[in-house]
Design goal:
By secondary structure, the protein is mainly α. Helix content is 57%, strand content 8%. α4 packs parallel to α5.
Length: 196
């Protein structure tokens, strides 16, 4: 019996270690170095990098109990808020790729941690693509739905998905504090790194 218990504990420890390793490998531990020049694309890229940094640290070291926390009967849980940010990141990266967000197709079913990783990867990819862009006019928001499609200028990406995702990253910070697991106090959003 002791052998089975020890084996079980080793399995749990190894599983937790793997999760910790995968959490450490996601982007935006720091904000990347600023571009040398100011262009529309580099400014948007930097906005997305700021979002990625905030989101990474807002969601770092959350527990299953934290994921289930919500402020009341009407609010979203932290996991539901993270799911929303994941979908916003898909709109952002598809705009960067000049592709439509097709709501008629469902993506793969992901865990909360997989969505976190995918969100950060989407933001990192969008940042890289926008950094190279010379014209934001070609990065329209295109939505395909069963009843047709719609298009919006890039301006809607700024006040829509990008700023909405920043808003929700802040909500996660507040929710996790209320849940008893506050964000790392060394996070410095002004400098884009952890304080020493």
């Amino acid at each position: 019996m002791k052998f089975i218990t020890a084996l079980f504990l080793m399995f749990i420890f190894a599983n937790v270690q793997c999760q910790e390793t995968s959490l450490d490998s996601v982007p935006y531990a720091t904000i990347p170095k600023a571009p040398a020049t100011y262009t529309p694309g580099t400014v948007v890229s930097r906005m997305i990098d700021g979002l990625g940094f905030r989101y990474r640290w807002a969601t770092e070291a959350l527990t299953i109990k934290d994921f289930e926390y919500k402020p009341g009967n009407e609010g979203r849980t932290i996991a539901e808020t993270m799911d929303h940010v994941y979908h916003l990141s898909m709109i952002i990266v598809l705009s960067a790729k000049k592709e439509a967000r097709d709501f008629t197709k469902e993506g793969p079913e992901l865990t909360v941690l997989e969505k976190r990783t995918a969100t950060l990867a989407n933001l990192e990819m969008a940042s890289k693509l926008f950094k190279e862009s010379q014209s934001l006019e070609e990065h329209r928001l295109i939505f395909k739905r069963a009843n047709g499609s719609s298009e919006f200028p890039f301006w809607n990406n700024i006040n829509g998905p990008i700023e909405d995702a920043v808003w929700h990253a802040g909500q996660i910070v507040v929710l996790r504090r209320s849940a008893g697991n506050p964000i790392n106090p060394k996070v410095n959003v002004f400098l884009g790194k952890l304080n020493d």
